[in-house]
Amino acid sequence: MAGQQQHKLNARMTDGMAEVKLLLRHPMETGNRKEPSTGLRVPRQFIRELVCEHNGEPVLRTQWSWGMARNPYLSIRIREGRSGDRVRVQWTDDRGAVDVIEAVVS
Amino acid sequence: MNRRILLRSGLTAGQLALAAKAGLLWPVTVLASEWPADAFQATSYQEAAAMLFRGEPVEEGGHVRLEAKDIAEDGSTVPIRVVTDLSGPLTVTLFSLANPTPAVGRFELSGALDGRLDTRIKMAQSGEVLAVVRAQGRHYGARRRIQVSAGGCG
Fold first, then answer.
1. Which residue among A30, A61, A62 places its CB closest to the CB of B153?
2. CA–CA distance, A47 with A57 (Å, rounded to integer)
3. Is the pLDDT of residue B28 over 50?
């Protein structure tokens, strides 16, 4: 993903809960799109699975298709979250690429 | 044995399935679902729902609210919010009914989360978005029509 913008993970206390916001940089290609300049079909490429952990405990697991938005966005709220807690998100795309991002609740 | 201990034990989905077959786990504890390839490739909602919900009915008209703008300017990224008063663990499944393959994603929320999920989906054209929440073995749904100015699956 060299040259692309960074993934973003933000976690902060809001209304007594830890609000987690995640923005990933990923093309999420459906496999239906054609490259305008060449007319060639762009191969399908998408994030398949993602896990979000709060202090080491999984709180969210997702399974996605190519129908999720390009540069996927996600926001959840952890009820018992506290300032200083650790949030970790790991994801895998359909080609097996694994990536991870971490944050501390502020 | 609860879900958290299971998840923390680092067993893969395959190992979990084997353990389940061997009777080592109660079926209800096997929650880390497999990626649902057949449902994601299904070309109709009915077909996808039959696989994802095993033919169980989806009750609409309560417990789940789907929030979105009436008009999406860019179908390749349509913000939606699912809100429910049901208590976790919850499984939220999202559909864009007018997409070539309507099932777009599944989200398994532990009881540590509140009942609100924000995300963004693709819409190939104007149509209905449907959110189905599974809680305590039942399925509750909410749908909303969204008009798309520019499609997102091209």
1. A30
2. 21
3. no
